[in-house]
Amino acid sequence: MLKRLLKEVKNYTFAAVLTPLWMLLEVAMEMVIPLLMARIIDDGINAGNMNMILKVGGIMLIAALIGLLGGIMGAIFGAKASTGFAKNLREAMFKNIQTFSFENIDKFSTAGLVTRLTTDVTNIQNSFQMMLRMGMRAPASLIVAMIMAFSINARLASVYLGAVVILVIIIFFVMKATRVLFKILMEKYDGLNAQIQENVSGIRVVKAYVREAYENSKMGKAAGQLYDASVNAEKLMAVNMPIMSAMIYTCMLLISWLGAKFIVAGDMTTGELTSMFAYCMTILMNLLMLAVFFVMFTMSIASMERITEVLNEEATIKNKDNPVFEVKNGSITFKDVVFGYNKTAEEPVLNHVNLDIKAGETIGIIGSTGSAKTTLVAMISRLYDVDEGQVTVGGIDVRDYDVETIRNEVSVVLQNNVLFSGSILDNLRWGDPDASEEDCVKACKLACADEFITRFPEGYNTHIEQGGTNVSGGQRQRLCIARALLKKPKILILDDSTSAVDTATDANIRRAFREEIPGTTKLIIAQRISSVQDADRIIVMNDGKIDDFGTHDELLARNDIYKDIYEVQVGQGGGDFDEQGGEE
Predict the structure, then answer these.
(1) CA pair distance 399, 406, nearest whole angstrom
(2) pTM confidence score
(3) Residue 178's CB: how many other CB atoms inside 10 A?
(4) SS3 94
């Protein structure tokens, strides 16, 4: 795990190496100062030698300045290395997430990924910085101070050794206990982020149903769970400080008592006892730093595991050796296809589906909610891979294509229309980064989007807010259709993508498709009969199977499901109320 994470230090290795070296310089100066102080007391003050006091005092000042320089430079390089490490970690995680298939994404919650990219990385960044600075400084300072103390008076220095052994045992048990608690703590962060994300994204629904009090209650519960987990973890961490303080004061008392006896007996000078006090503080304070570091490191272990999990996750969908980089046409064939999101479920979502669609056909797909319409088309662009059987496009198994190639040739407008912050042109050019404004206008005219875009004061340069919140649902749908058309795909899939537009606009979009992109295979998932009835053929989905496949007239004559839908929507005078109206 550590080996994998440390790979991301990369171009900040130089700063990471320099940090402990600067810290060692600071330690060296700190160790020299107590010795110089002892000389000032014994050879200067006690001897009444002012020259010695000034000379040694000057050396102490220089040593202090050099130590200060070491500490400052260590802090600067440590901050650079740790923040750079955090930057690389976030970039590596995000880059790997971009390779994930839908199956991989389903494994991690959105909130969980956000926590990993933010809080978990920050935890590791803080631990890494402390490791570079304290991880080298504290042990080195501790060891050197211990050696110096033993060189002055071994019997008195034994007090330090006993304190070190006791504190190491305490730190070990605290680390062991807190590791589990911090893992639970990070899971509670996931829950809190999930609650915030759900509430903010659905704020309009919350207000429409006046459910603020209910959402406040849910938020309070999530925050309370995080509070409880934090308190449980912090309780153990809080044990360190009083124990350390008690140990420091105990050592000081013992050294004072024993040191006084040694001075009276003539076994130690006053200057040496002063040095012993300085080394005592150095040893115990560095033990305290190590304790804090180990607790922080323990806390970050849970974060390390979570981040490593994302970094090591391999995309379930990737290229084979020597993939195909050209899609000949938009013909589609399903051969006995079986697929399930849950591999252990009794029944698959798609159950032995067989289908043959010619290039350039317009195919309607209709069926009840949960009949696997969206799942069916997801197989075509390899958003998921089939469990059994085969899906071919242009006569070649989709698994044999280069992933980017097949997805570029299969343009999908999903149920949830997503626009990104930026201008309308910026959003349209997701379909083709090199598209000219003329190309964008043409695509928008096909999608019946040009008529409302030109009414905006800034036209195609109009700024779209994040998520497209400043345009209506129907306008979002038409912009997403135009974006898909700019890819000039061989297959165009509209997954209930005209549900928010009126039937007149829907008809205009379909007519434009027939006239302007006749060679593109078009699959239109819809809930309205009017959206699919003029398709070349219509698929009727039912419980993960193809119940029937034929023209509107054929299905109306022989298929009960299709006939029932038609009768409800059209046959008994239901119809679409907005047939002549506008979507605005």
Answers:
(1) 9
(2) 0.69
(3) 24
(4) helix
